[in-house]
Amino acid sequence: MTKTEPDGGIDMGITKQLSLALACGLAIGAAHAQQIDVDTDWAYAVRSQPADGPEHSLPGTNESYTRAEISDIYGPVDWFPDSHPTMPDIVANGRFPKVWACALCHYPNGKGRPENAPIQGLPKEYFMQQLYDFREGRRASAQQRKFNTNTMITIALGMTDEEIEQAAEYYSSMPWTPWIRVVETEEVPKSRTILGMYVPLEGDAAGMEPIGNRIIEMPEDVERVEELRDPRLGFVAYVPVGSVAKGEELATTGGGKTVQCNVCHGQDLMGLGLVPGIADRSPSYIMRQLYDFQTGARNGAAGALMQPVVTNLTVEDMLNISAYVASLSVPE
Ligand code: HEC
Ligand code: HEC
Fold it and tell me: Cys staple from 196: which of 27, 81, 115, 130, with CB 3.0 to 4.6 Å?
């Protein structure tokens, strides 16, 4: 199952071939670079996950897997294979070395996590256009330190047009279903981040802190979501008290600052024609997109239509709008 992690033991054959190739000044392909002696891991300060570590399972399945299998970049575990259509190879396994399996970050069902993007049920043409925009340098993150948007760009650059169409066809075939629970609150659990996702602090460090002008999204269950990538358990989004009503006012009337979202995103904000759905999707993702449009970091083919929407919005307005659209309920 695991194709990324070395499974221990030195392959003398390969090692000899490598030294020979090096001595001859030959270029070593990326595929060879995978054959790393685990005993050198300390020098890189990396920890290899044991391929045969303890097995984990989830409610609703009898299968169990190791952590390495669950987060295998080129073929992560598909916990519920009967719950979605057959994944195209590029979605399930990616393609070494540049294209990581889409299912790793966006899950086989496309629900995604706050640090990446909800891609289930997006219109097919819109989906394809985003990958072209990433490729052509028309879609990046305004935040340079958001490393995984750069990973997404590398992935789009590595994909063929055919693979782009296959992935778009697959994810657009599944309609969006309920995922985000919005809670207005004065205080949020103190947290740390793991690769772009907030998780509550534990033990002596645990406690509450003021939410301030922030939206903090956390997994409903840290172990099941963060560690085991349960594609059935979503996120709770803590938002400031009053933000949903303020966002609703702007989103439904324009408030003299913006344009009503339903004109283009559909009456229920579930998408209309080529325009993507935004209801009940990760509010941190929505916020990043609004800000990316405003700063121009995202200026793809259809991005001009979003310019009059965002130009006059403050950061707080965008936060309120994100809280509102995430709070909308969608059909089961
Ligand atoms: C390393 C994690 C990762 C993997 C693997 C990954 N993506 Fe992404 N994807 C992201 C991130 C991060 C974003 C952008 C989030 C942001 O900028 O806020 C994104 C955004 C997208 C979007 C834009 C969604 C929208 O609503 O506009 C699409 C489409 C997409 N990815 C498709 C794919 C496909 C197809 C694959 C597999 C070939 C894939 N991704 C693999 C992390 C990933
Ligand atoms: C004039 C039409 C129009 C209006 C009005 C409009 N949008 Fe959009 N929106 C679009 C189009 C078109 C896109 C796709 C842009 C692209 O391809 O980059 C988009 C994209 C988005 C995205 C990115 C979605 C994703 O999956 O990445 C968000 C978030 C968004 N709009 C939010 C809003 C909100 C909130 C409002 C109301 C305050 C709004 N839009 C009003 C046309 C519109």
Answer: 115
